[in-house]
Amino acid sequence: MARRISEAEPDIIGVTASSTCLSPEALQTISLAKQLSPRSVIVAGGSHFTLLARSILRDVPELDYIVMGEGEGSMAEFVSLVAEGDREGVKGIRGLAFSEDGEVVVNPMRPLIPDLDELPLPAYHLIDVESGAYYWHGMGKRAFGISSSRGCGDRCTYCSETSFWQGYWRGRSAKRVVEEMAHLNGRYGKTLFVFNENSFNWNRKRMEEFLEELGKSGLSVHFWFQSRVRDIIRDRDLIPEFKRLGLYEVMLGVESVNSSVLDRYEKKQDRDMAQEAINILRENGIMVMANVMFGDWLDSEETLREIFQFLKKQSDFLILTLTTPLPGTPYYEEAMRAGRIVERDLGKYNFMHPIMSTRSLSAEEVQFLQKAYLKKYYTQPRILVGALLSPNPFKRMAYWLIMRYVWENAIGRQWKQPNFQDYDGFLRSSETT
């Protein structure tokens, strides 16, 4: 990246932090970009920069602008005005934040795009779709992630998506979604799709149309998506057709089976609903990837044991994350006021590091229990045998990937960025040459 910036010296450099845990690298990128190309205009975007725009602009002098919220309209206008040299016009763009005379200016937000079908397909021809960066869960070059909707209508206290998208869900039409799948299949040979959004099946009518369009397309593909418990129950009659057309797995937002913890998350579900949704998926031969959070103020080893026993035999995968108070959410504000946050390094806000203590556990104890119960789950004989003998190729693929992670964790091998080098060293070598 440093080499590309040095050679190009572009007019505008855009930096996105797609999640809080990537924000330290995003800020390093901004610093690097300004050092290598001082004349470039640096603009940032994404949920982290949007929700913390004021504090970031105060603390990061190298950053010129932040495009807040949904960026297509604001960014297009921004690029046009910068190209024209109209810096005064730039200051009037809705959805833009910047510093001026030592003060942070935050313009009114731009309205959300009412019809996402107005947007073109992503410019896939401008990226290397064969890059390892786009591999999904060890699925290789046949797999690709796409996004068909934005936002969520729920109000879960811990979710930055709710804050970023202003509590609204919008979806592209089923026809456009299937057209994108067909494009990726025909041009790039993609046959396995991961729907990136939190609630692919939020809207019942869109799901009916999606199944109709996918059936008419004749595409021979497989896919999986994330879902709320409630939506699987609502669409139980559609699940057989989903299965027929290629759905092989659902990542189910179980989160907890403890009613007090669920109330603190403001999840509109309970243990019985989670059980019903799991039953529906299993009856249709669809793998269940249960997503669970552990580490709320009310959590203890007893609540973790409860969720473990609930899912031990009936979920195909357990995603045991640590409850993380993301900046910009009500959950974060509450944890800050109560003094529960013990980890301030945002690079560790990745749902796998303990950020706060609970009523009965220290952050270190939370981490210990998470690792212990993950080990207990993934060393079950049914999973070890499944990695070798399962007739389901997707299950074998996923279990082999899990076994690799378990092995790397056991030998203490840490992941490293390929081709990484310290950019200060790059700067020094550039100066000498």
What Rg, in angstroms, do the CA atoms define?
A: 23 Å
Q: State the name of the first-level CATH class of the domain at 2-111.
A: Alpha Beta
Strand neighbour order, sheet with most strands: 6-9-10-11-12-13
| Range of strand content | 15-25%
Note poorly predicted spans: none
Task: Report the biggest beta sheet as strand number plus sense, adding barrel if it closes.
Answer: 6 strands, parallel
Globally, the shape reads: globular
Structural class: alpha/beta
Assigned CATH architecture of the domain at 2-111: 3-Layer(aba) Sandwich
What is the fold named in CATH at topology level of the domain at 2-111? Rossmann fold
Total count of strands: 13
* Residues in helices, as a percent range: 40-55%
Mean pLDDT: 90
